[in-house]
Amino acid sequence: MSSQPSQSERYQKAHALVPERLPGLMRNHAVVPQWTGEGDQFWYRRDADGGGHEYVLVDPDGQRREPLFDPAEITARLAAVLPGPVDLDATPVGRHEREGDTVRIGLIDGRTAVLSPSGDTAVPGPDPAALPGPDGKAALFLRDHNLWSREIATGMEHPLTTDGEPFFAWGAMPDYTRAMLPLAIADRPLPPALACFSPSGRFVLAVRLDERAMPEHPFVDQLPPDQARPRLRPFRYHHEDETPSGSPELAFIDRETGARTVVAADDGLLASFASNGPSTVAWAPGETAVYLFSHTTGARTASLVRVDVQTGERTAVLSETAEPIYEPNTHLYSLPLIRVLPESDEVVWFSQSDGWGHLYRHDLATGARLNAITTGNLAIRDILRVDPQRREIVFVAGCGDDGENPYWRKVYRAGLDGGGQTLLTPEPADHELIAPAPQFFAAIFGGAATSSISPSGRWFVDRMSTVDTPPEILLRDARTGAVAETLERTDVRDLLDAGYPVPRQFRVTAGDTDLWGLITLPDDIQPGERVPVIDLMYAGFQVVLQPPGWLSGGGNAAWSQVGAAYAALGFATIVMDGRGTPGRDRGFRQWTHNAPAEPRGLDDHVTVLRKLAEQYPLDLDRVGVTGHSYGGYNSVRSMLYFPDFFKVAVSSCGVHDALKMPKGSWDWFLGSGPHDPAALRDLGNLHLADRLRGKLLLLTADHDANATMDHTFALIRALIEADRPFDLKVWPGGDHYNGTNRYARTVMWDYFTEHLLNRTDQGGS
């Protein structure tokens, strides 16, 4: 029998297998196509056979594949004109635009050069604080709370509005988008993400949200880099127990005349525009009107509204009311599954009226439903392309027929007029594609938006894998699904040599419900041994957590992939999605609605662990749970609802007090407010504090604007009043997204090692 590794060796291996290190142990695990605009040609960056990287140009129509450029030559030419060192491995090319013999190259850090036979020169890169127009000739930006326009060629600028003021600024992202706090601390100027151009560029549609009377949440930067005194950085938003205020505005602005048309905007119009930006705006031919989607999370009714550009007059085109709520997409951070086709007077509309999630064609003039576009037991996730001329739509959906994993993403083509639905990816695997996303994600967080489907809609790039089968990246025909070329086969030898424990997919039947997930086991379990198991939990209504493919997918990939590190320490882990989460039929999805005093899907986790212990060597006397954000909330909730089952929890940045959440945060559970105070109390964890029996470590960060630190403090007070012991760590300067450094992970591992493995010689320092 081989000797067991020491704890120090286990920690070293675990730190080598954390999620951010795993991609570096694979070669060519993803292809991000960059479409050139010349037909369906695209280029991508790949790991070269001899080390380093290379750039490949692919012409699907001409069946041609060749180097995009010579990296050594381009590096030398860029280094001669750009400030600072040029290393295309450390700072890759993000933009490559060719016009004749002249090439504009932009590195991902923003440095840009034009390389020409007449001479190479550095040029300004894209302004991250500007929103470019449709033809690239103009851009919008914010100045003194107003919306300005800049002509790119001349640099001339002029204001489009003059009445903006602090917290009532045109086109500005609202303060209550708490993700903005880290950007504010970095003093990064932001683009006007709540504004968009018309297709011709003549008109601008803009929103200004009225936050002037909103209460301030007093965030304190305890350790500002430029001074000893802490700095107050308040953000404004209404909590659940506060009354909304303010009068937001929506307006069309004519860039030629300066005329402004104000629209009477309701909460639904504003919420949809604020969440999805221009992605849900469709302009009528001649730019005489726009079609806007109107809906708020948790509302029973959604509508498509036509707004006249000149008069601001509103007309409801079609509406749907569903019980208990209507959802335009069950995956919260994806675009609504609504597409307006003004040229053909049609609307593609999503509905769960038959118990699944399907697309329907409606008449744009009357709102009448014309036909079902999709059929079968589908849960549609993304629309990749709608082609009115070819009368077809390409979309991504989960299915699960014939016992297959319902979380596997499949690509389909269907006729807009009904019939002709074709599965383009029949292989029993997950098919991961890059789908269109809300524009503000790129505008705020950077990066160029792209898609896995070509500009003409003829081709798509498919990353095909399972949790235990490495990816093949395929170029496929979007009409037939036929594989035109294997772009890459992922090399995972270094990953496996580093000790990566390949997870196993499971399906557990609970009553008449199938529950899916994956389990990861240590590779050194001794005969007769049972190992402690940790539930890597999110359990939120917003996203699916479990990766359906090889190190892919999931709403929080880093959290769901940390099982490899825990296996190195000697723990089994599971990742699963119980009832009340997306990706399944309507009954599964909305099972937790209006049940604030129930475990709300957490009992599915208990059921799964008990069933898995019949098949795998799991010790159910040593069960832990951990999660971040909504998972931090649910990890504590699991301990309080099932105190005899879950023995140890590490809760990171949990949202424990429902009243402290921004207004509307619980609407998915309770419907549109106002909400019963008793229901809000039941949704929180504070009133359950006296149920705590096991060991609990609470983690929080003082810069966290998404799950603010006072949530954790409220739970601490409740635990103290209930005389229940707990442990606490606070990360100074940490925000909601950067709490996964080496020290933080070691703290978490130490806690589970001490209380589930009964070892205090963690060796993790």
What can be said about this structure in brief?
This is Prolyl oligopeptidase family serine peptidase. By secondary structure, this protein is α+β, with helices and mostly antiparallel strands. The protein has 15 helices and 44 strands.
Give a verbal description of the structure.
The chain is α+β, with helices and mostly antiparallel strands. The protein contains 15 helices and 44 strands. The strands form eleven sheets. It has an eight-stranded mixed beta sheet with strand order 37-38-40-39-41-42-43-44, with helices on both faces. Strands 1-2-3-4 form a four-stranded antiparallel beta sheet, with no helix packed on it. Helix 1 packs antiparallel against helix 8. The longest helix has 15 residues, at 742-756. The model has no long low-confidence stretch (mean pLDDT 92).
Layout of helices and strands:
Blueprint: H1 7-16, E1 34-35, E2 42-47, E3 53-59, E4 64-67, H2 71-81, E5 93-99, E6 102-107, E7 112-115, E8 121-123, E9 130-132, E10 138-143, E11 146-151, E12 157-159, H3 180-185, E13 195-197, E14 203-208, E15 216-217, E16 220-221, E17 231-232, E18 235-236, E19 249-254, E20 260-263, H4 267-276, E21 281-283, E22 289-294, E23 301-308, E24 314-321, E25 339-341, E26 346-351, E27 358-363, E28 369-372, E29 379-387, E30 392-398, E31 410-415, E32 422-423, E33 430-432, H5 439-445, E34 459-466, E35 469-477, E36 483-489, H6 493-497, E37 504-510, E38 513-520, E39 531-536, H7 557-560, H8 563-569, E40 572-576, H9 586-589, H10 602-612, E41 618-628, H11 630-641, E42 648-652, H12 667-670, H13 677-683, E43 695-701, H14 709-721, E44 727-731, H15 742-756
Parallel strand pairs: 39-40, 39-41, 41-42, 42-43, 43-44
Antiparallel strand pairs: 1-2, 2-3, 3-4, 5-6, 6-7, 7-8, 9-10, 10-11, 11-12, 13-14, 14-19, 15-18, 16-17, 19-20, 21-22, 22-23, 23-24, 25-26, 26-27, 27-28, 29-30, 30-31, 31-32, 33-34, 34-35, 35-36, 37-38, 38-40
Helix pairs in contact: 1-8
